[in-house]
Amino acid sequence: MSENPHVTKVEFIKSAVKVPDYPDEGERPEIAIAGRSNVGKSSLINKLCNRRHLAKVSRTPGRTQLLNFFRINDAFVLCDLPGYGYAKVPEEVRRAWGPMVERYLTQRRNLKGLLLLMDVRRDPGDWEVDLIAWCTHHGRAIVPVVTKVDKLPPTRRAAAIQRIAGTLGLPAKSVVGWSAETGEGLEDLWARVARLTAPSA
Q: With b meaning 16 or more CB within 10 Å and e meaning fewer, what string describes 179-200?
């Protein structure tokens, strides 16, 4: 598996729920990662950051119930958002997810964009479509990432990505095809992260 040559230093900062508990990272830009439970967020973070266990990978969806912040190369911050849509967590926790994420997306001043992860084998649902519309309305950049492309034969991947992009109302070229297993899409994804987190001119 290929590594990400662009990342040399990664630090876990803290976990948080409420706005006053968010880390104070000064002017460092921040990006967030969102997706349904078990879509591969932890695997993507570990692969992107060259760490096997930076984010916990679990076969139990819904494990991540907090906002988890990581500092990358002392240059920008990555926030892992709670997975959406898994019903077998406690009801009070599930009810709190939506407001917690909305507060973060609305109030995090240094947030430059969002990576929206979707499984290549599943069509996007209302949640993904609504999130893209919300980000567009609020001026938040969004990078659609189709995960687990290694689960499909190469001859079917382009059609699957085209279908997902069409459902979202986006051109296929805006979507990153990604595999944490093989590293496919790593350079494309990193290039988009680098653009989002580049110092303002």
A: bbeeebbbeebbebbeebbeee
Query: Which residues lie below 8 Å from residue 138, measured CB to CB, with a gap of 6+?
Result: 105, 106
Domains of the chain by start residue, with CATH: 10-196 (3.40.50.300)
For residue 36, what is the DSSP state?
B
Q: Which of 95, 70, 66 is nearest to 82 (CA)?
A: 66
Q: What is the pTM of this model?
A: 0.88
Read off the tokens for 136. 């567009």
Nearest to 69 by CA among 81, 78, 56, 60: 78
Model confidence over 75-92: pLDDT tens digits?
Answer: 999 999 988 754 455 555
